[in-house]
Amino acid sequence: MRSVTYVANNDVTLLETGQQLFPAMIAAIDAAQQEILFETYIFAEDAVAGSIAQALMRAARRGVKVRVLVDWFGTGDRACRRIGEAFAAAGVHYRVFNRWFRRGIARTHRKITVVDRATAFVGGININDDMLCDYDPRRSLPAPRWDFAVCVRGPLVEQIHFEAQAQWMRAGHLKLIHRMELFLETQRETRRTGVRQPPGEAVRPMRAGFVVRDNLRNRRTIQRAYLQAIGQARKSVLLANPYFAPGRKFRDALAQAASRGVEVTLLIGVGEFRLQDAVARSFYPKLLAAGIQVVEYRKTQLHAKIAVVDDDWATVGSSNCDGLSLFLNQEANIVVRNASFAQAVRTHIRGGIADGVVVRPEEFEGMGWVRRASYELAYLLYKLTMRVFAIGYA
């Protein structure tokens, strides 16, 4: 079961929260000379997002081709229109993904930026203020939203660029001849520029792969990447995710790893949506009985989608471990086979676990029937919804 094609000789840098991502992103945008592809689920209207928008508009005004794609549901209809007006005035090419669910209910949940085919940013961080709740920007968070992205330089950037360009074309209403012109333009630029590295920066020999999930040819690629890594785990599986509601195959893979003596720890975000919390907790008794450690993160909003398996496998991306991300929405993850990168991800997850609250088996042993029934009902409603909208969820 091969799901990830690894490319050697990449430099992949882990970035924690927007405090590290946004300055690096703005610097890359300000240095752009030819092209920027920019894709996000949420593009907020706060001051932090405004600094990104200003950088994109500066690039367009100096002649850089800037193409921005935002999700209609994630960003909101009014915000999409206002942002679009500002971008249009500055010469930024702008599209909105799936307005009013005209192409079904699937969303683009990806967060991708590619600059001059030399630098790419991929991860789970939306374009909004770390200190403001992403689903209610009027609400302040007690600590910066906990999330991650990566900066990629090296041959893998060409694959990321290809997928971002394809998404841009799919989101538009281009006639066939215009699609061909855009494709030929991409080919000409590739031949002319190739894959470039910023001068003075040495490439570390990192093997990395770019995995996307869509409803065409990549329906299960991200889940398969997880299942393959978990199935081969010999020492540890550490996973941090805000929404834990995967299908049976995923849960069984975790339980089987634990039965082999692998340390399996799940760091799960709670406190955002009561229904989501109830669905996740409906799995706890069986997870705990299988020897899996479950830790709830309550310090602030957990938005990270990261995992590390053994000593040299790690992933960072946009995909949650739930039915929406694994079977319906469009997602993008980076998978890295490198010991130092895996250690960095492990250190962050261990830190999150230290900030969390360990779930004890005894909390569920004497659970009352009302509480148990509420968890089971939440799961049944969730499962029914996923069965209707997300093909493959079980």
TrEMBL record:
<feature type="domain" description="PLD phosphodiesterase">
    <location>
        <begin position="104"/>
        <end position="131"/>
    </location>
</feature>
<keyword id="KW-1003">Cell membrane</keyword>
<feature type="domain" description="PLD phosphodiesterase">
    <location>
        <begin position="298"/>
        <end position="325"/>
    </location>
</feature>
<dbReference type="GO" id="GO:0016740">
    <property type="term" value="F:transferase activity"/>
</dbReference>
<dbReference type="Pfam" id="PF13091">
    <property type="entry name" value="PLDc_2"/>
</dbReference>
<keyword id="KW-0444">Lipid biosynthesis</keyword>
<feature type="active site">
    <location>
        <position position="111"/>
    </location>
</feature>
<protein>
    <recommendedName>
        <fullName>Cardiolipin synthase B</fullName>
        <ecNumber>2.7.8.-</ecNumber>
    </recommendedName>
</protein>
<keyword id="KW-0443">Lipid metabolism</keyword>
<keyword id="KW-0808">Transferase</keyword>
<feature type="active site">
    <location>
        <position position="303"/>
    </location>
</feature>
<keyword id="KW-0472">Membrane</keyword>
<dbReference type="InterPro" id="IPR001736">
    <property type="entry name" value="PLipase_D/transphosphatidylase"/>
</dbReference>
<feature type="active site">
    <location>
        <position position="116"/>
    </location>
</feature>
<feature type="active site">
    <location>
        <position position="109"/>
    </location>
</feature>
<dbReference type="InterPro" id="IPR025202">
    <property type="entry name" value="PLD-like_dom"/>
</dbReference>
<comment type="function">
    <text>Catalyzes the phosphatidyl group transfer from one phosphatidylglycerol molecule to another to form cardiolipin (CL) (diphosphatidylglycerol) and glycerol.</text>
</comment>
<comment type="similarity">
    <text>Belongs to the phospholipase D family. Cardiolipin synthase subfamily. ClsB sub-subfamily.</text>
</comment>
<feature type="active site">
    <location>
        <position position="305"/>
    </location>
</feature>
<keyword id="KW-1208">Phospholipid metabolism</keyword>
<feature type="active site">
    <location>
        <position position="310"/>
    </location>
</feature>
<dbReference type="InterPro" id="IPR030872">
    <property type="entry name" value="Cardiolipin_synth_ClsB"/>
</dbReference>
<keyword id="KW-0594">Phospholipid biosynthesis</keyword>
